[in-house]
Design goal:
Number of helices: 8
Strand content: under 5%
Largest sheet: none
Shape: elongated
Structural class: mainly alpha
């Protein structure tokens, strides 16, 4: 896989690939470290949510030198953990499924549970439990040992 392809895979928004590749290659030709650009794109992707409306196109992000933004200097592991915590809080199963290319196992509420609020609460608990399990499997430790909390 070429360096640009790795960047493209890492960057969260996929528009204008030819322009992005041109700018990427120009930066590398002028001395930019391709690995640094790729790593910055990965970290940036961890900071954006599912709504990509305000995410700049990859060529704009590169042209503007956004890969040098101070907030991207965050440790990639910490950024992933923070992202996963946000998904836990909002019970965003789709975001976790999409990011890690996994599916939450199907589950149905008990037959005697008919109140819509109770069903929503039951489902949210199931989602949060599943996201917690994903956290543990991805980071190989209990969240309570790293954060003092029992959830991601």
């Amino acid at each position: 896989m070429s360096a640009f392809q790795e960047f493209w895979k890492a960057y969260p928004k996929h528009v204008a690939p030819a322009e992005a590749e041109r700018v990427f290659n120009e930066l590398v030709r002028k001395g930019a470290d391709a690995a640094k650009l790729i790593s910055a794109a990965r970290r940036y992707a961890l900071t954006v949510g599912e709504d990509l409306d305000y995410v700049p196109s990859p060529h704009s992000w590169l042209k503007q030198g956004r890969y040098d933004d101070a907030d991207l200097a965050v440790d990639e592991h910490a950024a992933q953990v923070n992202w996963l915590r946000q998904q836990y809080k909002t019970a965003n199963v789709k975001a976790v499924e999409n990011r890690y290319h996994i599916s939450m196992p199907k589950a149905y509420p008990p037959d005697d549970m008919t109140d819509p609020d109770a069903i929503r609460s039951w489902y949210k608990e199931r989602v949060q439990s599943w996201i917690h399990d994903v956290y543990r499997s991805k980071f190989e430790c209990s969240p309570s040992t790293t954060t003092g909390q029992s959830s991601p």
